[in-house]
Design brief:
Helices cover 76% and strands 0% of the residues. It is mainly alpha-helical and 86 residues long.
């Protein structure tokens, strides 16, 4: 069974392949080269990256990553403890 991470890796490899192929065609002055480069870029940034971020952020609370007063205080406490231990 193909896992979600394997699908993401396949999309990334296909996107890089399209970009490389586009640059290869561009060296031989083919008009369709820009399409391959564009589709490869779209594949990376509009398909693979959001899928990766969705996969990695499952089960995590967004509140833990926000700069709230509570989190700033936690960071200050951790900073003080680090300086005492060193």
């Amino acid at each position: 069974m193909i896992k979600f991470k394997h699908i993401i890796v396949l999309i990334v490899l296909a996107s890089f392949s399209a970009i490389i192929y586009g640059f290869h065609l561009k060296s031989s002055s083919d008009a369709g080269a820009d399409k391959f480069i564009g589709f490869g870029t779209i594949g990376l940034f509009l398909v693979a990256m959001p899928l990766f971020l969705i996969k990695e952020s499952k089960g995590k609370k967004m509140k833990d990553y926000m700069l709230t007063k509570e989190n700033i205080e936690k960071m200050k406490i951790k900073d003080r403890n680090k300086s005492k231990n060193q």
